[in-house]
Amino acid sequence: MLAxxxxxxxxxxxxxxxxxxxxxxxxxxxVSEANGLLTLHLAGGARVLLxxxxxxxxxxxxxxxxxxxxxDAAVDxxxxxxxxxxxxxxxxxxxxxxxxxxxDGPTIAWFKDPAGNILSxxxxxxxx
Length: 128
Known about the structure:
The chain is of the alpha+beta class and about 130 residues long. It has helices at about 15-25, 70-80, and strands spanning about 10-15, 30-35, 35-40, 45-50, 60-70, 90, 95, 100, 110, 120-125.
């Protein structure tokens, strides 16, 4: 029944205007706004809906991944644009000082949007 539906994902933000500025200006994404909702228009035709929620609580998991050819270059560019990368540490898994995880799995770096939702840039050669 839903196999032909052009499904899309979505997540909440606490401030639509701040989210629009971040996703459009800082990340350079194509963003549209209608009826108080934002739509991220991603490469390949994917769409993600961002909606306001008064009682917004940031996701504790990665809500959006951006596959890139060069994680180091992407991190450098995003840092120049004001993005701060997260550093995580758990036994056997540690991000480096720049926030890049290089151990078990794809090279990946996590950052947060203004609403605290977790996003990542990761090595495109390790994505589906």
